[in-house]
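TL;DR need structure tokens for one chain.
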Amino acid sequence: MEENKMDLDENIIEENILEENIVEENIVEEKNKISKKKKRFNNLMELAICFLIAAAVSYLIVHFVAQRTYVDGKSMYPTLNDGDNLIVEKLSYRFSDIERFDIVVFPHYNEKRGGEVNYIKRVIGLPGETIQIKEGVIYINGEKLEDEYGYYSNGQAMHGGDAEEEIYIGDDEYFVLGDNRNNSDDSRKIGCISEDIILGQAVFRIFPFSSIGSID
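>> reply
TL;DR here they are.
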């Protein structure tokens, strides 16, 4: 009788231990599941944060530091060619003045395209100056400008357009020309460019690879 009772007690103890082990295993398994869920959530949060940081950095770079643009047309030949991919640097003009002969990028309405496009031109006239183009020669404040950048197809003299009559350049304006002087819509036709629309200076060519380098 006592032996049967002892066997029964041992069975009960073993069952209790088994149940406790099962409960502990279930608890451990549940903890592991929770831990995996937390880990996945943390990974997703880290990925989202990285994405937001990358988007913010990209936004800041494009709007305040530099952006990529491309040349569409031959108005800046031979300095730039149709299809060239360029880096436009925006930061320096926040701390220094735009200088004569800088190559700048700005948006302007294009009738053929029916909307705004980015124009790429060279700064010729500065704020407060007068400019006039007579018989293919550029005069700044009445004095001939030594210009080594102009390209004249077939040796033709540059037409003066609106600048055949002397133009006064406003305090926050610039007179710009394309290097391909007889094949460019520039300030001779569209007028002086306001400083506040200038996006930046074209400083580096990244494509084609054969022409990678800084732009003069």
